[in-house]
């Protein structure tokens, strides 16, 4: 009955095509707008149109955007603010496991969300590069796992391993290096992580232990193969 009553509306046949055309043009304009936003901040390609519209519509509401951060940044579960009530600056990033990394420079939240998200992306990279540099210069005796995120500790460990392994291959002292790695493994395993109240520290040490075990296996394999040169 409703369909029949609609069909009786005068001029409906001429009006519907016009309305459909207007709808299509508005839909295209919306798609072009969203595409422009994605081009300005490519991480927006990781989320659907509905999520993107919510982010753009709540660009100055960090609490709403907080829920979408994990979709935009694989390693960021949430961020910390200088003032939880005002939320004008982002001062830290936090992983799903609870690991918090302070940013070297706070990121200001501005009206255009793609701008401050891009700033956050750059600051995240800068902070991690700076931490990696500090971690690489720290010696094994002065290295404090609490000062660096797990990602940086493992990357630094791999870089040091590569450098030392190449050096010991050239000096034909891989057996000595194998002993050094086993001593390093003992140092990590002697720490009582099972009863640690610091869950994040426990995860860091476990990651380092797995990496050192892997490195020991590589050196043992190189010894069996009697490798004497790197190139």
From TrEMBL:
A GO cellular component annotation here is:
dynein complex
MF GO annotations: dynein intermediate chain binding; dynein light intermediate chain binding
Q: Could you tell me which Pfam families the record lists for this protein? A: DHC_N2
Give the superkingdom in one word.
Eukaryota
Q: Which parts of the sequence belong to the Dynein heavy chain linker domain?
A: 2-135
GO terms in the biological process aspect are: microtubule-based movement
> What name goes with this protein?
Dynein heavy chain linker domain-containing protein
Q: Which organism is it from?
A: Argulus foliaceus
């Amino acid at each position: 009955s409703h369909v029949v009553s609609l069909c009786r509306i005068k001029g409906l046949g001429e009006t519907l095509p016009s309305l459909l055309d207007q709808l299509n043009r508005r839909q295209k304009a919306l798609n072009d707008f969203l595409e422009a936003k994605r081009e300005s901040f490519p991480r927006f390609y990781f989320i659907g149109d509905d999520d993107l519209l919510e982010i753009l519509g709540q660009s100055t509401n960090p609490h709403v955007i907080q829920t979408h951060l994990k979709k935009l940044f694989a390693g960021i579960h949430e961020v910390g603010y200088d003032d939880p009530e005002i939320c004008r600056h982002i001062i830290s990033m936090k992983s799903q496991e609870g690991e918090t990394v302070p940013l070297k420079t706070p990121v200001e939240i501005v009206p255009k969300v793609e701008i401050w998200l891009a700033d956050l992306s750059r600051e995240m990279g800068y902070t991690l590069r700076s931490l990696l540099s500090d971690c690489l210069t720290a010696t094994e005796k002065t290295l404090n796992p609490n000062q660096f995120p797990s990602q940086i500790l493992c990357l630094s460990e791999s870089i040091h391993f590569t450098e030392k392994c190449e050096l010991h291959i050239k000096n034909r002292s891989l057996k000595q290096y194998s002993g050094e790695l086993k001593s390093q493994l003992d140092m990590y395993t002697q720490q009582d992580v099972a009863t640690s109240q610091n869950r994040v520290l426990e995860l860091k040490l476990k990651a380092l232990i797995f990496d050192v075990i892997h490195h020991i296996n590589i050196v043992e394999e190189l010894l069996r193969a009697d490798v004497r040169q790197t190139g």
